[in-house]
Fold:
Amino acid sequence: MTAHGQVPTPAFMPVGSVGTVKGIDPEELQACGFRMLLCNAYHLLLRPGHHLIAERGGLHRFIGWSGAILTDSGGFQLVSLAGLSRVTDEGVWFKSHVDGALYHLTPERCIEVQRALGSDIMMVLDDCPPYPSPLERVREAVRRTTSWAQRCRLTSRASHQALFGIVQGGTNHELRRQSARELVAQEFDGYAVGGLSLGEDKSVMWAILESTLTELPDTHPRYLMGVGRPEDLVEGVWRGIDLFDCVMPTRHGRTGWLFTTTGRVLIKQAQYARDDAPIDPLCRCPVCRKYSRAYLRHLFLAREMLGVRLNTLHNLWYYGMLMEEIRAAITANRFAEFRAQFYAQRGGMMREETSITTGNGSPQPAGTMEREERT
Amino acid sequence: MTAHGQVPTPAFMPVGSVGTVKGIDPEELQACGFRMLLCNAYHLLLRPGHHLIAERGGLHRFIGWSGAILTDSGGFQLVSLAGLSRVTDEGVWFKSHVDGALYHLTPERCIEVQRALGSDIMMVLDDCPPYPSPLERVREAVRRTTSWAQRCRLTSRASHQALFGIVQGGTNHELRRQSARELVAQEFDGYAVGGLSLGEDKSVMWAILESTLTELPDTHPRYLMGVGRPEDLVEGVWRGIDLFDCVMPTRHGRTGWLFTTTGRVLIKQAQYARDDAPIDPLCRCPVCRKYSRAYLRHLFLAREMLGVRLNTLHNLWYYGMLMEEIRAAITANRFAEFRAQFYAQRGGMMREETSITTGNGSPQPAGTMEREERT
Structure:
């Protein structure tokens, strides 16, 4: 439950970093079943600025989205996008990737920005080193992330705004558990696992996630940041994850990589030139109900915006429906069966996945995201 | 009346050259009030190919548009887009702007392509020289256009497909009237005026149009090709035009040039950064009902696809509503009053326009596009 409606979990959040999910209307996101968007405080701080958005009545109103919004702090973007960023215990100095202007982001300022945006869930500022990093750098990141989390925790925010901590620790099990314990001791409204899916093997990722989750209370939402593929959602839920975000459905849509119940369709391929079938005959999305692969291929080759839009819409619908099916399966207490069917439909991918699957088979009960009211 | 529904006239056709109005869904075009699209035989011949579209069940089905479609022949595009085109009395040799392949388009082949596409209204292949061209070149274009029109007329097409002739003649009054007379003698289902708005003065354009219209029967639809601005629609209707097409609402949308009842809004301007008003407070389009100028400016500066889409949708809605108001004014026999109000709202543009206005004040009666059945 957020100030902007219930968010049934486990949930996937479409990514709308700068205040829009690329090419898609808010009404369409709702129709896909999404109740919470991810926006990015880093991007919105740089452009159009959080004060401007606050003056417009906050982010929800500015972008026309009536559902919930989680704002990422931008810890990850400071690594991946900002030029010449320099991290100290005080905060991060970085140059805007938009106009090169110099910014100083501290944990306190990070919360101020998210408070101005009015998001329902804020993320702490974390120190997210690239992968791989030397152990010393990872250790420093954990220490700093814990310290910054506390400073975020102590910065004033609106009473309806939840705050999540972010676990770091790279691919080191001990550091991950330590990071998780230190955050849990601070008592956040929810806990995110950051710094995964940065290039490490998937088997390593799942093992690290499992170590981390042993330290995170299942009474609080647990959020796997920036992950991932459809099978990652199934595997994450299997291990107890409640929240996901990833650019994959939108970014892949723009490159013509389409998700289906039986695997991917690369729409540019010549085999679809005269294919009158929809992207996925089992899909009931507005795109599959109306358009053929042949037309979508034509739009893709002609670099037409409508193609990008329809591809993205289909992929988001696929993700939305997948999460709906996952929630239904959990409610019916048949998630293990659902998971087996999921892989069986995709023919053979089960083997690839099962070899690295060591989950405990006990996903979080489906429900709505609850949190303790801040006092 | 076409095989795909009635088209109330005077009408504006959005341009969907390659089989999509850039970024906009067919349902949205319907909601804007459009009942006929313009597609381009030249573009579709090159990609994905007319045979492929015919196999898919024709163009309407391929692109998911249940309304009417007029296909332009591509005479204009052969000048503006194709590299190394060479025009002879037999037809046009040109290299595809898509892949450089060599094509030979004759009047007969042009009709075959449009027959395969299954459009409701076909256009003859015309010889459209650039502006300015030497008088001899314009004279040759008129002779060739008349001859090609006859060859198009004699080429077999489906019984539901209408065929329009295209008047050429540059800015020479005598050649224009001659071209019109020669086409009328061949008895087409409608008559288009091509080769205008290519850079000549607007006053010249209107004078030429008026000369031409004296030779075109008002019992048949009269179509002013590639024109134009909102005021051009008003002025064209004033002179008796029934059909228009232009890339302006869509192309201007992409550049952030927005049409309003009181003039243009250039959304990138700093004055809109904190402007919570909709693009046009008098507009009831889905964009103006929901989004602020401030948000649209943000999307534009961030080069976000949603901004392009919303801007385009608003502009198309503006054009659709303008045509609806024009039709209502004609039906109520108060078009002269409407025209005066139109300019008054735009403050001062009346003067600019009236100085070149010499219309006869007798627009075509509003109605649906009727044509003689082919025998």
In short: Chain B has two domains: 8-246, 252-347. DSSP finds 15 helices and 15 strands in chain B. The interface with chain A takes residues 18-25, 47-48, 52, 55-57, 62-64, 273-274, 276, 290-292, 294-295, 297-299, 301-302, 304-309 of chain B (CB under 8 Å). Residues 305-331 of chain B form the longest helix (27 residues).
